[in-house]
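Worked example 3 (structure in, sequence out).
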């Protein structure tokens, strides 16, 4: 991790409002890395989980698309346009638990931003990343983390639904190969 923190320190010394992306497999350490970076540097974190597709948009056609379960249209309209404008902006945080928007989150101008989560590098997302990090971990490690974090029922949903959707997205769009840095987590 020291190497990645040095790389980010170097980037932020050159560009105070850098945009760093962290994509990768579920339970591979994306949020943990984003939080670690936030502890060291004064950055804002935007979670892709806040942009899962609302239930009324989850059609068979949309979900048949690689990465179609993320609301990239809203991400572009709220986040990317806000970043491009260079002014303070807010975006809605979608909650799968409530099936609606739980809260609005504010992003300040002239501060670095981390966009973290699966689908952050979706080709429909028009982010101008200054650094793209891809996180991975072996399948068994990921399953153990999901079990601890989400419980046995959710683990089955991840195995039958979310992991195959992610795998298709990573494969179809060559996400790992298009990243600047690849980090493989090994501890469970």
């Amino acid at each position: 991790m020291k190497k990645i923190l040095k790389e980010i320190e170097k980037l932020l010394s050159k560009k105070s409002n850098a945009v760093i992306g962290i994509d990768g497999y579920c339970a591979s350490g994306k949020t943990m890395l984003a939080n670690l970076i936030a502890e060291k540097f004064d950055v804002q974190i935007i979670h892709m989980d806040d942009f899962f597709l609302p239930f009324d948009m989850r059609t068979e056609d949309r979900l048949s698309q690689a990465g179609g379960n993320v609301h990239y249209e809203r991400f572009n309209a709220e986040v990317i346009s806000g970043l491009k404008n260079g002014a303070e902006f807010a975006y809605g945080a979608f909650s799968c638990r409530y099936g609606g928007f739980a809260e609005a989150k504010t992003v300040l101008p002239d501060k670095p931003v981390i966009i973290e989560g699966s689908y952050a590098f979706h080709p429909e997302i028009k982010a101008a990343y200054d650094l793209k990090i891809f996180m991975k971990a072996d399948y068994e490690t990921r399953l153990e983390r999901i079990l601890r974090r989400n419980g046995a029922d959710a683990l089955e949903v991840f195995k039958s639904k979310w992991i195959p959707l992610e795998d298709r997205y990573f494969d179809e769009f060559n996400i790992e190969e298009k990243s600047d840095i690849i980090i493989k987590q090994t501890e469970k």
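Notes: The chain has one domain: 2-185. Helices lie at 2-14, 30-40, 60-63, 72-85, 139-150, 152-173.
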